[in-house]
Amino acid sequence: MKNIISANVLMETLSKEQWEAYRSATRCHICEKSFASDDMRVCDHCHLTDRYRGPAHSNCNLNYKNSLYIPIVFRNLSGYDAHFIIKEIVTMYDGRVDVLPITKEKYISFTKHVDSIKDKTENNFQKNCVKLRFIDFFKFLSTSLE
To answer: Is the pTM value of this prediction over 0.85?
Structure first.
């Protein structure tokens, strides 16, 4: 996942219709505010898929963050002892763990916020790389699996 998320993917080549829509746009697609005459307009794109998302203010584009949640689904997680999983993910990477408890011993969900991953070969850090969300889908079903 680290390699996929950290890859610098260039934006796809825009079609003629996309260029026309970009040039004629009056609003930023992120904040939905109008462009002023002195605003620097940029082409916002997804850095994972290379797809063009729309015209944006330069500041909106720079401050835009993807919510990178990776769901890890368990059946009846709260019925099992999830403490051994939490114990391991707390020490695996830097970052906090948020817990959605039923009781002190049982959880519906918990999330590991991986704050940074250090690349051992290049000595660089990536901040807020990914969030691992462990969920108990059994708690979200309205009927039994049968």
So the answer is: no
